Amino acid sequence: MPQIPQDHVCIKIGQKLDRLLPSYECCIFRVHDELRQVNEKAYEPNIIAIGPYHHCNENLKMMEDHKLRYLSHHLRGNIEKLNRYVLALRELEQDTRRCYAGTLALDKDEWVEMLLVDGCFIIELVHKFKDRHFREDKDPIFEMDWVVKTLQRDLLLFENQLPFSFLCELFDMIEGPNNHPLFVSWVLNFFQDLLPGKGRVNNKIGDLKTLYKHLLEVVYDNWRPSFSEERCDGDVKFIHCVTELREAGIKFEKGNGSNLFNIKFKEGVLQIPLLTITDTTESFLRNLIAYEQCCEGPNSHFVSDYAVFLDCLINSPNDVRVLCRNGIIDNWLGDEEEVSSMLNKLTKSVLWSGTYSHYNGVFEKINVHYGKRKNRWIAKLRRNYLSSPWAIISVLAAISLLVMTFLQTFYTVKGAYV
Length: 418
Prior knowledge:
Blueprint: H1 8-19, H2 33-36, H3 62-75, H4 79-97, H5 108-130, H6 140-143, H7 145-154, H8 164-175, H9 180-191, H10 208-211, H11 215-221, H12 242-247, E1 251-254, E2 264-266, E3 269-272, E4 275-277, H13 281-292, H14 302-313, H15 317-325, E5 329-331, H16 336-345, H17 360-371, H18 373-385, H19 389-417
Helix pairs in contact: 3-5, 4-5, 5-8, 5-9, 15-16
């Protein structure tokens, strides 16, 4: 039977199918457009490109010389070691490509060079941050605090990542095999100052190389809370803002928990751990939320849950002011309007389901308290008549006057009948 010639469209589609990578291997993605449009700058690196997505950005070329300087400091002129690294990374070229979603323009040689230069820089950077004696004299990166802080921010951008399995392979070549917990400890130490609140280090057991997908996930997983509040699965009813909750007699206190997310409500008091807001907080939280958008499971959205909680609480600069006054927010931005606007926009264009929110239990308790009229009446009484010593004295004087008037009237009437 004669073979039917293939149409050129069929050949073209077949070539595209051959280049198609399995979707389950992708672990590093671009931020989707709806999320990016809310605040594009929050997802863009300021001084350094890591990985392929921002590799060709001309505005980030300044750090390329610093990357090469760190590689040179590690090699110390050992060309044989360099050759060994390059040959090993060529074996990882296809595996690392599969970790990225989308079209990647770099050829094989450019890809291997990027892996080596970027990967070695990260390992050297976190090592030098941990051990001052390992640094070169007058290292310009550590001479200026703003450079380190900006690197901390940029290296936790969702699009600015290298596969963690590759970093572990490179770490094995540089520092020796089977010591990945040491690498994780260096990473967590480097990013500690960036966290806007306390976290909980998870001492994972097993192969860390396959456990984490990238540095962002390392920080995310080791910031993951163990919630003490009972979680109620089901549709969530949002709570009112700080100003309205205060009108129902709810008080706000700084929580003493070991984790930023350990929020409690008990006997009319809402306890919230300290949140420190700096100029890097929005970018950090946004990129964690972007990462959560690509995760599955009910326990993989605790940052989004927290952002929704803050969005409910804060509707105005006055709400921010109250939380600052109660030691719950440490505002390094200075402008309460800016903080309010930032927190209100965190969850915009975020796909979020409240069915399994970690704060459903807290929301339910608050709403029950708020729904009782007597709580609002008592709060109004305290606010209007018992808010200061002079107000209390005035109320007592009025009560005394009423009592005396009543007694005078009573005895006058009684005397008329005697």
